[in-house]
Amino acid sequence: MIPYSRQWIDKDDIQEVVKVLKSSFITQGPKVREFEEVLARYCGAKYSVVFSSGTAALHAAYYSAGIHEGDEVITSPLTFAATTNMLVAVGAIPVFSDIDLETGNLNPREVEKKITKKTKAIVGVDYAGLPVDVAILKKIAKRHKLVFIEDSAHALGASYGKKKIGALADMTMFSFHPVKSITTGEGGTIVTNNRKYYEKLLSFRSHGIIKDKKKLSKKNNPSWYHEMQDMGFNYRITDIQATLGVSQMKKLDFFIEKRKAIASRYQRELGGLKNFIIPKTFSGKTSSWHLFALRLIPQKKYLRDFCFIELQKAGIGVQVHYLPVYLHPYYEALGYKKGLCPNAELFSESEISIPIFPALPPRNQALVIKTIKNIDRGL
Ligand SMILES: *Cc1c(COP(=O)(O)O)cnc(C)c1O
Question: Does the beta carbon of 153 lie inside 6 Å of ligand 1?
């Protein structure tokens, strides 16, 4: 079975990991700082803090943004559950706002309608690697004094205007899960330009414990003294993973070029189908093409599961991204109901993610194209 996505690990990646295994630092050592510096530089941001997962990074971002019990946070339902699970983890109320069908991303006009006195933040999700409308969402956030966070788990390497995604929101999250732009096995980061957030993120990653003598609240302490000043977890990444991250970052632009080339081929060769809608390219933003989200036309959405199985029968790994988060039983039990975001529901009901990843061989791309054309003809 051709997977819908997978990592790309070279000999040099492996050699770097072996070097760390032979060194004296296995967890937080010099490679963690180096990885953070490489990430911040790539995104054109001041700071990066790396975590044990993208989910941990989101938890840290929400906590550092001061999102508390009872705060409302507006976000997209067309995302992985972690985006809102971590909001629930800090006691906040996820407010789902509908998407734009063409992009799969939050529709800013809908976002503005959802703002109340309790709203604390907006979390944009760069669906499939296509950046959200950063300029508009930032303006809305500023007007209403909200924090603007991007869940850019899909979008490392994507651009908005001339800028890389990462330094545009108050905080931006990237994931290094094996299906994402680069991998560290598990891992994630928050990138920010804000020093206050940076310090809170560092503290949250490691139990809220402070060792820096200048920052201790008590004076005249013995040399061993350190103190816990704030809530925190063990969300540290290891040097073993960070060195893999540094090595993978050298290939990021190459990975994105490969993904773009596959997306262009799919757009070219699947463009004229009767029953499918193909994701578009937009001016002013460049996708990192984490996913290639094919959709059946609305009149044929009832055939999605049939097409899904036909693709699997041909040996093609497919996925659905995503069930709207609020339709998971946990969220239904919190009171969210079907009908809340009609576009997200229609998108979800008609979507199939087909294989796209840097190592996907041209002959497999051809098989995917041929199979979809055959299915289209028979519908
Ligand atoms: C992958 C992903 C996450 C979570 O990242 P992990 O590193 O797997 O914890 C969060 N949000 C979105 C949209 C994702 O795709």
Answer: yes
